[in-house]
Design brief:
With 285 residues, chain A is mainly α. Chain A contains 16 helices and no strands. Chain B has helices at residues 62-75, 105-120, and strands at residues 4-7, 13-17, 20-26, 30-36, 41-47, 83-89, 123-129, 135-140, 146-150, 153-157. The chains are: A mainly alpha (285), B alpha+beta (160).
C-alpha cells in the first residue's frame, strides 16, 4: 500500500490539479506589495475588482486585532491606515480561510482547529519579529504562519491510512513525525505545501517558511531568520496544545534556529505563557 | 447516555454537573480533573505552567488553579473526603535540548500538580502523563470517568 500512496502523491504533485486553489488576485497582490515601486492606487484597484474580497477585507480591517480605532469604510482608506503589508496579510487571511479551516482528518484535527493554530502561530511569530526589532520580517512570518501547514490539507487523507506505520517509524528509528511521513509516504506536509505555493505563485520567502518550518536548517540563508521565527512560534503553540493533532509533540525544536532568532530561554517560556492571550486574539479575527 | 459537551480552553477552569462532559486538548499542559462521587459534581483545570510566582492569572498555574478548583467544588457543597483526582498531559517535545527550561515544562507541570493535590489532601487515582503525544481528554461527570485519546488510541479510567 505504501508504494501505491507514493505513486498517488507523485501523481498529485506532477499534475497539480488536485492541489487546493485560491483566487489569482492573491499572488498578484502579494507580488505588487513586494515591489518597492508599487503604486497604492493600483493595489486598491486590483482589490476593488472583487466585491466579496473587498467586503471581507473591510470586515477584518475593523476587527479587534487589526482595527486602529476609527471605522474603515473603503479599501483606499484601509491601505492608508493599515499600510500595504498589513492589507496583503489580510488578503491572504480572507482567501486562505476556506482552504485551512476544514477538518484535517488524518491528523485528528476538527473543523477550525488548524485555522486557530495557524492564526496563533502567525500572531505569535509577528510579535517575536517586532520584539527582536525585525519589523521588516513581521509580514512574512505572519503570512507564513497562516499557511505553514497548508500541505496537511492534501496529505491528511493519506496520513489517515498510514498513521500507525508513521508512528512505528518514529519509535523504531527515533525520528520526528515529519521524517517518518517522508519515510512512509515519500513526501511530508512541507513538500506538499511547497508544491501548493508553487501552484499559487507565492514568493520564495513564503515558500521557504512552508517548506522548512520543521527543518529550518535546510532553509535558504536569506530566509533563515524568518523561517526560524515561525519554527519557534509553531513549536511553542503546539506545546500549549493549540492545534495539536495525532502527531502530538513528535517534532523537534532546533537549538540553532532558536539562537538565530536571538530569543533567550527565559523569553521562550514567556512566549509560551502568553499563548492563551494570543488564542483569544486569534479568535477575534 | 447524552452528555452535554463543555470545552475547557487552555488556562481555563470549569466545573459542571452530572449531565455534562468536560473536554480539553493537551500538549505540555496538564489537565487536572476532580470529582465528588457523592454529589456527582466535578471540575477541570487546564494549567499551562507550574507556578504562578505572584501572577494574578490564577487559572494558568498549577499552584493557584488547583486550590481554586477545589474551592469552587466546596462552594457547591462537595466534601473533600468524597473528592478524587485524575490528571493527564504534561507531554514533552520528542527532540529537545533538555537543558532549556521550556524543555522541562511538561515534567514540571506533572510534578507540581501532584504535589499540590497531595498538599490539598485529594487522592490522585490515576494519571495519563508524559511522553510526546497530544491528548484529547473527556471527563464524564455522570460517573467521573476519564477518557483519554492519544495518537489515535483511546483509554478509559473509571476509578472514582
Amino acid at each position: 500500500m505504501q508504494e501505491q500512496i507514493k505513486q498517488r502523491l507523485e501523481n498529485i504533485i506532477s499534475t497539480m490539479t488536485q492541489l487546493p486553489s485560491i483566487p489569482d488576485v492573491v499572488s498578484r497582490i502579494i507580488n505588487m506589495v513586494n515591489d518597492p515601486n508599487v503604486d497604492f492606487k493600483a493595489v486598491a484597484d486590483e482589490i476593488a475588482k472583487d466585491q466579496s474580497l473587498t467586503t471581507n477585507i473591510l470586515k477584518l480591517c475593523n476587527s479587534a486585532y487589526f482595527s486602529k480605532g476609527k471605522e474603515i469604510v473603503s479599501v483606499d482608506r484601509a491601505i492608508v491606515t493599515l499600510g500595504l503589508k498589513e492589507i496583503k496579510d489580510i488578503v491572504v487571511l480572507v482567501t486562505c480561510r476556506n482552504v485551512l479551516d476544514k477538518p484535517i482528518l488524518g491528523y485528528d484535527l476538527a473543523a477550525g482547529e488548524m485555522w486557530t493554530h495557524n492564526l496563533t502561530v502567525a500572531i505569535l511569530a509577528k510579535k517575536m519579529a517586532m520584539d527582536i526589532k525585525r519589523k521588516d520580517l513581521a509580514d512574512i512570518v505572519f503570512t507564513g504562519g497562516i499557511i505553514h501547514d497548508v500541505g496537511k490539507t492534501v496529505l491528511a487523507l493519506y496520513v489517515a491510512n498510514t498513521f500507525k506505520d508513521i508512528m512505528k517509524v518514529t519509535q523504531e528509528k527515533a525520528v520526528t513525525f515529519i521524517d517518518a511521513e517522508k519515510d512512509v509516504m515519500g513526501f511530508n506536509h512541507q513538500d506538499i505545501g511547497l508544491k501548493i505555493l508553487e501552484k499559487w505563485k507565492f514568493p520564495d520567502s513564503l515558500k521557504a517558511v512552508v517548506a522548512y518550518h520543521h527543518n529550518p536548517e535546510n532553509s535558504p540563508k536569506e530566509f533563515y531568520k524568518a523561517v526560524s521565527i515561525v519554527h519557534v512560534a509553531n513549536i511553542i503553540t503546539l506545546m500549549a496544545g493549540v492545534g495539536i493533532g495525532g502527531d502530538g509533540l513528535y517534532h523537534a525544536l532546533n537549538p540553532d534556529a532558536v539562537k538565530e532568532t536571538g530569543i533567550s530561554d527565559a523569553d521562550l517560556e514567556k512566549y509560551y505563557s502568553i499563548v492563551p492571550e494570543i488564542v483569544k486574539q486569534a479568535k477575534q479575527i | 447516555m447524552a452528555n452535554e459537551l463543555v470545552n475547557v480552553g487552555v488556562a481555563q477552569l470549569k466545573i459542571g454537573t452530572s449531565e455534562q462532559m468536560l473536554r480539553t486538548i493537551l500538549g505540555s499542559c496538564v489537565g487536572i480533573c476532580i470529582y465528588d462521587r457523592n454529589k456527582k459534581i466535578g471540575g477541570m483545570a487546564h494549567i499551562l505552567l507550574p507556578e504562578a510566582l505572584g501572577s494574578n492569572q490564577i487559572e494558568k498555574y498549577a499552584d493557584t488553579a488547583i486550590p481554586a478548583l477545589i474551592n469552587l467544588l466546596l462552594k457547591q457543597g462537595c466534601k473533600k473526603e468524597f473528592m478524587s483526582a485524575k490528571i493527564a498531559g504534561g507531554a514533552s517535545m520528542f527532540k529537545f535540548k533538555i537543558s532549556t527550561s521550556l524543555g522541562q515544562i511538561g515534567e514540571r507541570n506533572i510534578e507540581v500538580s501532584k504535589d499540590i493535590l497531595k498538599k490539598a489532601g485529594i487522592a490522585l487515582l490515576c494519571e495519563d502523563t508524559g511522553g510526546s503525544t497530544g491528548r484529547v481528554i473527556d471527563f464524564f461527570l455522570n460517573d467521573g470517568h476519564l477518557k483519554v485519546k492519544a495518537g489515535g488510541v483511546e483509554q478509559n479510567y473509571y476509578k472514582v
